Write the structure tokens for this entry.
Amino acid sequence: MPKGANVSLTALSEDAGAVVVSLGWSSASGAGDADVSVLLLDENGKVRDENDFYFYNNPAAADGSVQLLGKVPTDNGDEDRISVDLTAVPEGVARIVVAASRYAGARFGDLDDLRMTVADRSGEPLVGYSIDDAGVETAFIFGELYRRGEEWKFRAVGQGYETGLAGLATDFGIPVLEESEGPEEAEEAEEAKLGGEREPEELADPAQAAQGLGTADAAAAFPAAPPVPEPAAEPVDGTRPQPEPDGAAAPVAVPAQTRGRGPRTTRKKVTLPKVAKKSLAENDSWSPARLFPVPSLKSDREREVRATSVLLSVMAQVPEFGRRLTAGFGAPAGRMQTFTEVSLPHGDTPRRPDGVIRVERAGKLWTALVETKTNGNPLKAEQVQAYMDIAARRGYEAVITLSNDVALEGRPMVEVKVDGRRKHKVSLWHLSWAEVAHQAQMLIRHEGVGNAAHAWLLQELLEYLRHEQSGCHGFQNMGAAWVPVRKGIEDETLGHGDARTVEVVESWERLIRQVCLRLGGELGQKALPVQRARRGSDPQARRVAAADRLCADGKLFAELRVDGTTSVIAVSADLRTSKVRTTVDVPAPEGAYPLVMVKRLLKLLAEAPADLHVESLLDAGPGAGAGPGSGPRGTLERLRPEPGDLLPAEGSTVVGFRLSLLKGMGSTRGNTESGFIRSVDDAVERFYHGVVAHLGPIEPRGGRRG
């Protein structure tokens, strides 16, 4: 639909009581990102209080009306989804504004394919809107949902702000504090406003968490701003009415959106430290008592039953965790109860799904059946099909499968048939045990949970998942095709079109997604694979092309990026040389003295491994191709005493540097000490912490040519 147009949601769907709003974008470099925010406005066009502003650190409304479902990777970018239950929106809310903002000086004009989609609760798209005129704006209102009489309508807005989140929020009565002071001064100023309260403190150890120790509460208060009235008419020309002040609004406590230190919230948050206090055990042979013991597990069936019960019980007791895992599946925010080994009728033989999740909100129930596999066991299509049929007959909303495998875009974990004649639709979703562990780690290490007991429960869950006998270790096997494909590449007998190479590429993609989960959980930031394919391209066709490249050069290749950084980490596994290479390119600042620039780079890499390969990238000149040319290179150990060796003798312009680490590749297809999966995981972790984490601007002050 065109900019400024509006449409009634009830005219588009019989079930418009709940919708899923998606904001999407892409970037050729893979470095594009934005943060989604939602504002609930009253008739005067302003927020009522701090609970009307939702963003990445305040992702869900207590009444279930708004839930930020998070980002999912697409073929060549990201898509951020928001669940809006219009039946739960308070009567005092007249408009729901959906926006996004960028940070660190990034502009929306640098992104491609800016788009917004509104779908019904089943995921069926209702209406779409593309923004094709973005430029210098650092914040954008994509669209809004608003009441008109007894119905809800959608308006395509497309209004940008050069002043970022602060300018956008001010329009709706939320002035955001600009961080003009340094970190210490800003913290002191905020503490002064709070009467001396400090940031939430971490608990000393899980034992303290069990005793229920709390943390300090912190919130930043902001001055009021004049309201923005609701337009009397419905514009269709893309223009928006200008605000007309009609009185002062009450002060609103809203967290400031920042990078680095992260926003403050008005809610208490508890996190556990990465390193616990010194143990009181006499020696290392003493094992600490665990809430969820695992050594007694002897069979796959016992592992499945125990893992399902442990996970579902923690989900029900820790609301933040339960909501985090189910929000993306369309579950509302409400009272959750979980069950195991439930008997449900199915023909002559009742079926017993491993678990059932029920969420109650406003007297309505959302129900999902759970099928669990551990220890690398595959899901069975016949079982999942039976649960899909049961869910459809009983009016349940979803079937959730859970295993060590990682789902791929455009590739279902199991093939099921859906009876199109049934009006009730059942969604099929998949979770990896690695994703479960990732979400638990994000909450207790970085984002925090509501109280200390919840943090301790999540810690116990993590200990259980990490135990060698739990069977919940994530993707652990490259598959049956791995050994013959690797041998075929080594002896040059592998032919193009061999279906086994596609299987290996799929396993490689699963591995990279799991590497991103583990790295992101450790850092507290999202880490996502970078896809440079065109929007809308067929994922399977992309995998076939990668399989052809594997046959040709014997290499598996992938790229990943950590949220909030511009560095793209390339990972290459050479099956001919049995080496894993991790690489990152560092651009050179324009006009800087070459030798000063090299010395600065080596100083930043003072703690990097001595075997790091450093290569200068040269300006190849016009018509020489898309990429830079290769210049002098050497290991960090050799270059430290002689930094000038990295400069080209012929005086070519240095446009950047390429940093690479090589690591031996595991020979087996599993996750053992000598396995391929472990070697790739270790290579990425070593490269990020040893190299990428130390990178910054490579030009010191005064380093430019005068």
Q: What stands out?
A: Confidence is low (pLDDT under 50) at residues 178-267, 700-706. The chain has 14 helices and 25 strands. The longest strand covers residues 151-161.
